Amino acid sequence: MIEMHDVWKTYPDGSPALKGINVKVDRTEFLYVVGPSGAGKSTFMKLIYREERPTKGSIFVNGFNLEKLKQRKIPFVRRNIGVIFQDYRLLPKLTVYENVAFAMEVIEAPKKFIMKRVQEVLDLVKLSDKGGSLPTQLSGGEQQRVAIARAIVNNPAVIIADEPTGNLDPDTSWEIMKLLEEINFRGATIIMATHNKEIVNTMRKRVLAIEQGEIARDEVRGEYGYEG
């Protein structure tokens, strides 16, 4: 599903974010990306959905070589990648239903299909009764559920989750993780950056540790491996 070959990322000020990354992520795999703050985790994630471009190396996502991709093809590739952020990034003036539907409207999905599909994902994330609410009327956990619904509404092959439980209390964090596990079980590949030691050590998925821009560990059923 995802391959990186000798990927380097150096920022304009000369600081290296990633150095010689080589990694493969299989279809339907669940991968935790861990490491100290500033290690390069966010850059690693952004390269996958082409928010950033590598200084050197090649990246393949779902069969597409991102570096050789024509500009007009980028939106098509991004449709197959759902992104979940720590700060939710919901549109404040739109309702829950409208926030999720917006992701489908952008790709010009038929209106009848939008109504059916949005209701399906709101049922999945247990927010079927919140469709008419604004983000400000929801708890943090509910807002993150909306963000997840928006990320999965177009049935993406890959879900990128950047610290999805970072702003949530422990109980809500576990609810979000159970939801992500269900989405993974349904066939999506999930790559999740996290600092949550308890979640990583309890759920025991594949762990990719990045330190100072390099892969320090890649373990099939890994542990967090850092203090805190």
What would your notes on this structure say?
The protein has helices spanning 41-48, 74-79, 96-105, 111-124, 140-152, 170-185, 197-203, and strands at 2-10, 16-25, 30-34, 56-61, 64-65, 81-85, 158-162, 189-193, 206-211, 214-219. It contains 7 helices and 10 strands. It has a single domain (2-219), classed as Rossmann fold (3-Layer(aba) Sandwich). The chain starts with a strand and ends in a 9-residue tail after the last strand. With 228 residues, the chain is an alpha/beta fold. The strands form 2 sheets. The chain has a 6-stranded mixed beta sheet, sandwiched between helices. Homodimer. Forms a membrane-associated complex with FtsX.
Instruction: Look at the structure and give the CATH class.
Output: Alpha Beta
Beta-strand content: 25-35%
Q: How many domains is the backbone divided into?
A: 1
What is the typical, i.e. mean, pLDDT?
Answer: 94
Number of H/I helices: 7
- Strand element count: 10
Report how far apart the termini are. 31 Å
Keywords:
six-stranded mixed beta sheet; transmembrane transporter activity; alpha/beta; membrane; four-stranded antiparallel beta sheet; cell cycle; 7 helices; nucleotide-binding; 228 residues; ATP binding
